[in-house]
Design goal:
It is built from two helices and four strands, in the order H-E-E-H-E-E. The chain is globular, with a radius of gyration of 13 Å. The strands form two sheets. The protein has a two-stranded antiparallel sheet with strand order 1-2. The chain has a two-stranded antiparallel ribbon with strand order 3-4. It is α+β, with helices and mostly antiparallel strands and about 90 residues long. The longest helix has 16 residues. The N and C termini lie far apart (about 40 Å).
């Protein structure tokens, strides 16, 4: 990866990979520092290895790329565990 667009593509691909689910019971790994609000952080499968995901973020930041979608609304909506929505892990918002 050498361009910010390539980092964005890699970020989205890896997030899709580690966040893929078929049932809410598979979800539970909170990807810390991926948003502004506590229950706005992205969620992955409990068994996912997020090392590559965080490596992509670190390398993109080192290159000066600011195009990764790591900002969100800065609030903490109530959530009761996790959900699998459209085959993606997420919070089970109340």
């Amino acid at each position: 990866m050498s361009t910010c667009e390539e980092f964005l593509q890699a970020f989205n691909a890896e997030l899709s990979h580690i966040g893929y689910c078929t049932d809410a019971a598979q979800c539970g790994l909170v990807l810390k520092r991926t948003s502004c609000g506590c229950t706005r952080d992205r969620v992955a499968r409990s068994d996912a290895d997020a090392a590559k995901f965080y490596d992509i973020i670190a390398k993109a930041k080192a290159k000066g790329c600011n195009n990764l979608p790591l900002n969100s609304i800065c609030d903490c909506p109530a959530a009761d565990g996790f959900a699998c929505v459209d085959q993606r892990c997420s919070w089970n918002y109340q």
